[in-house]
Amino acid sequence: MKILCKFTKLGYLKFISHLDLVDLFQRTLFQNKVDVKFSEGFNPHPRMSIAYPLPLGIESNSEYMEIYLNSRIDLKDFLIKMNERLPAGIKIVEAMYDDDESISNKVKSVVYAFKLLNTFFDKNKDIDIAKELDKINSMDIVEIERKRKKGKRRIFVKENAKDYLKRLELKDDAIYAYIKMSENGSLKPALIFDILNNYTNINMDELDIDLERIGLYQDEDGLKEIFL
Predict the structure, then answer these.
(1) 159-165, long-range: CB within 8 Å, 24+ apart, which pairs?
(2) Fewer Cβ close by (within 10 Å): the C or N end of the chain?
(3) Are 95 and 227 in contact (CB under 8 A)?
(4) 3-state secondary structure of 164
(5) How far apart are CA 148 and CA 5, in angstroms?
(6) Nearest CA to 181 among 222, 134, 139, 151?
(7) What's the predicted TM-score (pTM) here?
């Protein structure tokens, strides 16, 4: 059996690596004597996974983790005991039993919020931000360049970002990027910077924003959350 957990990754812990985060959860599970299922084979390890790990330096209130168990547990008690031992910034906010396919197969889109700071508005005080975003939304082709693996080599290839970028919106002093996930890949937040700087009159860099991943979604439009 499997439980699906929704958790936060905030504050200074946005700089913790994926492997360290997995280790943190494993130690907390063992400390609370949760009956976690182990993999089989020569080197068994706890069966748990975190869907689409965050890049370093990005906060989120909606991260997801799957944990396989040998026996049922009381989920309310599980939340209380886990959160008592987890550090500030990491908190499991919801948990439910889930017998469906892996969450990685459910996710069809991701939404990022580029929260605009005062330095951004100082640079762009004469720019109509919403109008500039509409330029991107109305384009059929937005060319980007990124590395792809070809055999044993990595090469630069040109792709159309609109194959992944559904839309950009200005909401509450933040630019929201709705991005499609597919077997061919997705768009990293750094590429959104490139698109805005290359295809609009907006001037921004990483010091002008706080970046948050709003969530992972079951539809391509970023409307249907994993937890409903």
Answers:
(1) 161/187, 161/191, 161/195, 165/136, 165/192, 165/195
(2) C
(3) no
(4) coil
(5) 32
(6) 222
(7) 0.89
Distance, in Å, from the CA atom of 111 to the CA atom of 178, rounded to the nearest integer, reads 5
| 3 token code pair | 């439980």
Asked if 96 and 78 count as a contact pair (C-beta separation under 8 A), the reply is no
Phi, psi of 62, rounded to the nearest 5 degrees: -140, 65
Q: Are 130 and 151 in contact (CB under 8 A)?
A: no
What residues are paired with 48 via a beta bridge? 67
| Dist. CA 217–CA 109, nearest whole Å | 5
Q: What does pLDDT average to in each consecutive run of 10 residues of the chain (228 residues)?
A: 94 93 95 91 87 90 93 94 96 90 84 95 93 95 77 70 93 94 82 91 92 91 77
Count of helices and strands (H, E) across the chain: 6, 10
Query: How large is the greatest C-alpha to C-alpha distance in the chain, in angstroms?
Result: 63
Structure tokens at 18: 């994926």
Taking the CA of residue 1 as centre, how many other CA atoms within 13 Å lie in the half-sphere pointing to its CB? 9
